[in-house]
Automatic annotation (TrEMBL):
InterPro entries referenced in this protein's UniProt entry, alphabetically: Maleyloyr_isom, MDMPI_C-term_domain, MDMPI_metal-binding
Protein name: Uncharacterized protein (TIGR03083 family)
Record domain MDMPI C-terminal: where: 147-241
Superkingdom of origin organism: Bacteria
Sequence ranges assigned to domain Mycothiol-dependent maleylpyruvate isomerase metal-binding in this UniProt record: 12-134
Organism: Streptosporangium brasiliense
Species classification: Bacteria, Bacillati, Actinomycetota, Actinomycetes, Streptosporangiales
Amino acid sequence: MRDWTHAEHAEATGREITRMAEVLRDRDMSTPVPTCPGWDLAALTAHTGGVHRWAAAMVRDLAERRYDRDRMELGLPADPGGYAAWLGEGAGSLPEALLSREPQAPMWAWGGDRHVRFWSRRQLHETVVHRVDAELALGLPVSVDEDVAADGVEEFFDILPYARWSPGVAELRGAGETISLQADTGAGWVVTVDPDRFHHARSLRPGTVTVRAATAADLLQVVWGRRSPQDYGVEGDAGLLGWWLERAVI
């Protein structure tokens, strides 16, 4: 696993937007998206492209407060047939906005890192996970770069404590039990649930329960609820894992 810079996150975001737009091009936008219940590809695309434009606007303004996305003019085409191209336009405009500001510049963010750099990382993984949603909906093979996926798993753990709208997060307390996520590629994390909080660290050791998968991309899908850990391998206290996954939701 490697550490990323703001510029690397921004540039990777552009590449991932292009990939998602290509996946969606000429598709039936009424196709249901099982991993986002109640959404079809049109709703998935509108959401993802809307988030890109919302984040870009806040970064350009170094916003001190959250903008109301529902009140913004996002330029969504009237015809869903144009949604993929509209999404793809963000491959230029979002990285441009992210790179126009210093990574350490303070601004509003819902995570703990309230700086521009929060948004380059967040938009990369927002896009990756929703591209995966589209690929799963269309029955396409899922492929995520291993470095991107490993950073995405770690980002999930970094931002999870700040998902205050998700009531189960407050219940993630315990007596030192550990949830270990391990990939055959060498990426690994251990989450510890203590009486007052949970915390994570890069580690290759097993836990009270351990999920073993081939790649970090597999683990990314597990933590974001896109695949079941039983699709891979679970060792140890499966009840603890189920308890964690029910509550660790963003």
